[in-house]
Amino acid sequence: MGWTRPPHGWKKCNYDGSYNREMPSKAGWVIRDESGQFVSAGQATGNHTSNALESEFQALLIAMQSCWSHGHRKIWFEGDNREVMEILNRRKSRFDIFNWIRDVQAWKQRFQECRFTWIKPADILAKSHLPQNEQFKFYDYIPIVISSALQLKNS
Description:
Domain RNase H type-1: 14-122
InterPro entries: RNase_H-like, RNase_H-like_dom_plant, RNaseH-like_sf, RNaseH_domain, RNaseH_sf
GO molecular function: nucleic acid binding; RNA-DNA hybrid ribonuclease activity
Shape: globular
Order of helices and strands: EEEHEHHEHEH
CATH architecture: 2-Layer Sandwich
CATH superfamily: Ribonuclease H-like superfamily/Ribonuclease H
Helix content: 25-40%
Radius of gyration: 14 Å
Pfam families: RVT_3
Protein name: RNase H type-1 domain-containing protein
């Protein structure tokens, strides 16, 4: 299943988290509009997490906060971790990550409309290096590191 366009008036945010038990988790996200055009992207270094699932939740929270701060109110979040989507869409329960779930649900309420789906996208931004001495990077242009991946998705 490839990338699909969001409904008219919506934005779609593809996000991914990167986990390494020795380092803080990283996040990357790409936002496109209903025609599939690049809107913006970002990457960030988060806190240390206990496992890959927590890193995915942290990446989603960072992406949600970025989308909110840039005025996106109808947003479709798409990630590559099926378990995150099953938990958020109430098909699966996990008490051990209750605080992460609660935080995502609280941020979801801020949006006019919000969806969560699963897809296997490239996780290039989450795994690429941030510029030296930066913890967060927002792009209003297509970063070179993802330009070829976006062209493949839109063709």
